[in-house]
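User: Run a structure prediction on this.
Assistant: Running it now.
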Amino acid sequence: MGHYRGVGYRYGQGRSLLDEATAAFLSTRSTTHPFYGVLLERRGVLLSEQGRPEEAIALFREAQRLMETYLPRDHPRIGELLDRTGRTLRDYGRFEEAEPWTREARELFRRSFGPDNAKYYAKSTFRLAKLMTDMGRADEAVALAEEAHRIFLAATPGHYATIRVSQSALANAWHLKQRTTPATLDTLRAWHAFRQGYLGFDHRTTGRTAFFVGRLLALQDRYAEAEPYLEDAYAILLTQSGLANEHTINAKVMLAELYTDWGLPEQARSLETLETWHAFRQKRFGAEHPATGRTALYVGRLLAHQDRYTEAEPYLEEAYAVLAAQPAPGNDRTTDAKAALAKLYTEWGKPDQAPLYQAEP
């Protein structure tokens, strides 16, 4: 089986090579041989990619029937065929039909490998989460995506690509949950906190949820509460996506509207760049004001993101000094400034200075 499976899986993307593998197999075995199912599966994948899902699914079913004459019903290869059928149905928008196949594959993998297996069980859980997201079943999607992400983190802590894909599925599930839940302030804040925890403070999607929270607060005329969220949104999106990005522009406009409605039109005019915003705050509020410290943090982060470490350092040092001097120095902004300095020195090739600012274990 190993030889023919290798031929089918390595070269099955091209029909001529798959035909060659099939001919080689049939020169010594018949179409009723259980291992012929491997080649049927690969041909089914090819048909699915050609937009012929019915023919593909028929081949998957036949492959499953052949393999079950040789393999036990709980064998992972049977689970892979069940999963393949569910994935093909999902790819063609046939979500209701895909669900029982996907669930059966996931349950088979759970019985075979246990609930902490990353290669089979977590991946099938991850696919079921995506299917639930497609079907609009937000609570199930979030629970499944969180389970898969937990397993991936524990089993493959250094596998960046797997974890990022898992994070993306989890964020999409939460996005669906937010869309299908009344946009209350508590809902938006929970969504934002989730994204900070899973994607990081500086991720562009974290910036967008900060914008949603700030916008809702601003629409309720709660300007002092809205300001830090909209500050975060503008600074993060400007750093990650650039000034011409639609989301950055929306955040900048919303922050300018906040200052205008709040009776601070000069602050609105200062938003052309982060540097002008920071300079304005230094002049208006003074060098030791927390608002000045926050914009110093934003400017330093932006410069560090551009690998302009020499320019970034004084801004981040200023931010940390100002914010740490405020009441409750353990606040989030102080922690953010400290983390930004540690990251700066690590990326700058000055690891001897980074430990001064790294979080204590």
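Confidence is low (pLDDT under 50) at residues 1-13.
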